[in-house]
């Protein structure tokens, strides 16, 4: 059972010279500020002994409400990923389109607990300003409205993505080596953990034809976070979100080393989030236990759910919503191997923070295959698919593409925990599981048609199965 901290007082993140366990100079319990200094290398050197405390501190950061005194707001900065100054007069007010839009991470990620999904009222707006400051605007025509994703099981998802990325890149390297050795083009199918990503052609001169690569960026980096699949790591996701939603600028992207100033947004507060604080947030999110299955079901529900799981596979839903993927390593390193520009990288630190997931009780409940690998029951494939078309546009109601991902293409939603995360769809405007299944188009058309043709009783069996997949804590 995961420990949940509930406190109206936010007391956290001790100065770098102190041990995480040393609370001698902790602020008074009535202090309204959320943040305190935390040095990354200090945490990394303490090793496993610091893990539990780091996670606890991350939870306090996730749930705490940021204040102006510690840097909330970005009066002279935009929401753009690349640090960019505003072209218009400074703005400090909360507003929904270009942000700020939340006091705390848990303001949106709170269903059924902190770290979970969010209701329609917690939707965010991903505007072109997220990519380009030219569109840092409150005009809805430059925004996509998105529902809040659950973060439960996120660490396992990132570990899967890291291993799959490594597999695909190894296949690319092998193809290039063979093409050079044989002096002829080599066609390489791309497959990892049973998921196919099309193919590429390697040429003897070292060039690649990636026109047939599917469901992943051409650099073969699997990006498992966001509904479009554009963030490779929890760290990248967190760094972006802190500036976008709260106006809290992480040093690793907005600090003096990169922008020439310790107060890029000009709010009078320097070095608003340290590398250690971002690591604490990552640690808490990464160690959120995966969703499970409801066990206290009446016999009628158990029978229906068991039949519904069989039908789920027979209708073709499990082709993308795969019941599980195998995971070899349970060691989570922060920063990870595939961090992007503007995010702390392994080469930037003396040593990464290592969290051994095998030490957590919830890992012991996960099934394993005959090779001893953990089977992560995500009901997903970490791959992008086109799931909308002209006839079924409910799931593709995007106004603009994000990071070159087409408007009708989305990452397969992991269904673990879906019984706890209503409403559904990418903007939370679908109220039932039946509605969201019927909204599928594109590559999911045949599966949706098969479901639609089922007798009502069998449809309800599939719903009973999906409703049994819950976030537990």
TrEMBL record:
Protein's recorded name: Cytochrome c domain-containing protein
Keyword Phosphoprotein: no
Domain Cytochrome c: 303-470
Keywords, sorted A to Z: Heme, Iron, Metal-binding, Signal
Family annotation (Pfam families): DHOR
UniProt organism field: Roseibium litorale
Signal peptide: 1-21
InterPro entries recorded: Cyt_c-like_dom, Cyt_c-like_dom_sf, Cytochrome_c_Peroxidase/MauG, DHOR
Membrane spanning residue stretches: none
Highest taxon above the source species: Bacteria
